[in-house]
Amino acid sequence: MSMVLIDGIKDVVFHNGIVRIDCLAAGPAGEPRPSGTLLIPGAQVGPVLQALNTAMQQLDEKIRAQVAEQAAKAAAPAAGV
C-alpha cells in the first residue's frame, strides 16, 4: 500500500467513470509539488466522501474530549489549593 501526503488539491476530473484527484504536497522550499492521484470509481464517490466526513467528525469529537479531559486534570490541582 502506498501513502499520499495531501497538502492541497490541484485538480479534480471525472473521466471514463473515474474521479481523478491530483494531490499536492509542499516541497523542500514550501512550493507545491505533485504527490499523487486519488482514483475513485464514480459510483463510489458519494460513499467515500460521506465516510471521510463521518470519520473527521468522530476524530473531532475525540480530540475535543481529550482536550476537555486534559483541561479538567490541569484544573483539578488548582481547585485543591
Layout: helices, strands, pairs:
Layout: E1 8-15, E2 18-26, E3 32-41, H1 45-79
Antiparallel strand pairs: 1-2, 2-3
What does this structure look like?
- The mean pLDDT is 93.
- This protein is elongated.
- The chain has one helix at 45-79; strands at 8-15, 18-26, 32-41.
- The chain has one domain (8-72): Nuclear Transport Factor 2, Chain: A (Roll).
- It has 81 residues and is of the alpha+beta class.
- The chain starts with 7 loop residues before the first strand and ends with a helix.
- A hairpin with a 5-residue loop joins strand 2 and strand 3 (32-41).
- The protein is 43% helix and 33% strand.
- The chain contains 1 helix and 3 strands.
Q: How would you concisely characterize the structure shown here?
A:
With about 80 residues, this protein is of the alpha+beta class. Helix content is about 45%, strand content about 35%.
Primary descriptors:
three-stranded antiparallel beta sheet, single chain, alpha+beta, 1 helix, Nuclear Transport Factor 2, Chain: A, 3 strands, 81 residues
Q: State the end-to-end CA separation.
A: 53 Å
Number of strands: 3
Structural class computed from helices and strand pairing: alpha+beta
Low-confidence stretches: none
Mean pLDDT: 93
Question: Which percent bin holds the helix content?
Answer: 40-55%
Query: So what's the overall shape?
Result: elongated
Top CATH class = Alpha Beta
Could you give the order of strands across the largest sheet? 1-2-3
Largest sheet: 3 strands, antiparallel
Strand residue content: 25-35%
Order of helices and strands: EEEH
Tally the helices. 1
CATH architecture: Roll
